[in-house]
Amino acid sequence: MVEASTPRESQTFTAERRADSRYTIQTGLEYRLILRRKVVQTGSGRLMNMSRGGLLFECDRGVPPRTRIELKVDWPAHAVKIALHVVGQTVRTQGTSTAVKILRSAFRVQEDAY
After folding, report:
1. How far apart are CA 7 and CA 21, in angstroms?
2. In this structure, what are the phi and psi dihedrals at residue 9, rounded to the nearest 5 degrees?
3. 19 versus 15: which is more confidently predicted?
4. DSSP letter string, 48-74
5. Is 9 exposed, middle or buried (0-12, 13-18, 19+ CB in 10 A)?
6. Per-residue pLDDT for 15 more than 70?
7. Pairing status of strand 54-59 against strand 68-74
8. Which CATH number fits domain 20-109: 1.20.120.450, 2.40.10.220, 3.30.565.10, 3.40.50.920?
9. Entry pTM
């Protein structure tokens, strides 16, 4: 059963639906789209925000939803040059912004090669 809300209720009630807090982190990243175990697209972009379960990034071209994606995020650390490696699935794209559900992630010492 679906309940409809009146316009007045929807204007006054703006609850956050996300389970995890989002943090603004703006830094560069590289990505690879994977289809049937093959890299079908590569590119670079900019991380906009992230939480424990997902992230939002911007890039020049749209990324299709429901696609496996691997990202290497330049982590803003001063003492050691590290990167956050993420395996996830794209959940939605709006313009140049793409939301990703994080399936697994790990920090690694950043190397020149991806």
Report:
1. 27
2. -65, -45
3. 19
4. EEE-SSEEEEEESS---TT-EEEEEEE
5. exposed
6. no
7. unpaired
8. 2.40.10.220
9. 0.78
